[in-house]
Amino acid sequence: xxxxxxxxxxxxxxxxxxxxxVAQRIVRDSLRDGLKPGDLMSPERTMLEKYQTGRGTLxxxxxxxxxxxxxxxxxxxxGGPVLQNPDASHLASTVVLLMQINExxxxxxxEVRSAMEPMISSLAAVRMNEDDLADLAATIDQMRTDMDDQxxxxxxxxxxxxxxxxxxxxxxxxxxVDSLLGIMDGTVIGIHYPTHRRQAxxxxxxxxxxxxxxxxxxxxxxxxxxxxxxxVKYAERKYPQxxxxxxxxxxxxxx
Length: 255
What we know:
Elements: H1 18-32, H2 44-51, H3 55-67, E1 71-74, E2 80-83, H4 89-101, H5 107-127, H6 130-145, H7 150-167, H8 171-184, H9 195-213, H10 217-238, H11 240-243
Antiparallel strand pairs: 1-2
């Protein structure tokens, strides 16, 4: 027998804000017109006429795009909005803010990394080019040279994973991994990497590099999985309490 309990009426959808609609049109028109990052876009007076909107709405639309890293506002009489290629820091800020609001612990990042990066490595093995491999080798050289400098070592470590993600040929994987790189190492919440741990990371990176260079998807995936698993074991053994801490929306991640 069908239930007679009345269903809750769906909340009416809110109409999109005028500024958001203008921002969307600006992006669409810029792509249609073939503008590239660094190109100066139409001045304010032209946009006011083109989009038939008020100055306040247009400026709010431009601020929205500036906040997302889509444009930069160049000052001066010959200035105006300049099209940009947004970096992943804007996505990172949103992701970490959502994590803090939902009280998601640092382990959340670890689980995402464990699920994604091995598969990304298998894609990179067949899609990355020689320049990508050269960039990857350079990060390993930097890690070896700067073994005693944790900051420089971890910067090279981030770059290593960044190169692989973007070399997967999937721009979304690139942005997602790139957006998480600033918090993946856990240094902001107190995870430290002594010399012996850095040496183990260097060995793992070398093995991953060799698998990628051999264009072996299965080996690349396996070596990356081993690398991530070793990281998880290290964090669980040395910093179990930190894995449960909520990741803060902290400017140090995005600077």
